[in-house]
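Marked as duplicate of an earlier ticket. Keeping the data here for the record.
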Amino acid sequence: MKRIRNSYVGVDQGDVALFSDFEENGQMWTGDGPRERRKLVKFRSRYRVPPAVHVSLSLWDMDSGPNIRSEVVAEEITNLGFQLVFRTWGDSRVARVRMSWMAIGELAYADDWVIAD
């Protein structure tokens, strides 16, 4: 559980078109086996500590023939941003993906002390 110690809570969110491989016969559409796409997302404001980040699919355009497999995650979360990650494998054919995200965390408080070494 992430505990927030002050009343300055920041909520940031977005919707990112991650790829459209159908148009250019890209690897997600024509490839086979493990495949991955990443995109760096930067927060609009700096969080005091890394926030909780939730990701989901907002558009998922898949071929109806093969199995449909995917994983969507946020990785490398810092107080400045994170990596938005989509993975698929096997014979899955993915034409397009758009992902939504939301970050909730503690913002800097005016009374925070910064102690230098």
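See parent ticket for discussion. Helices lie at 27-30.
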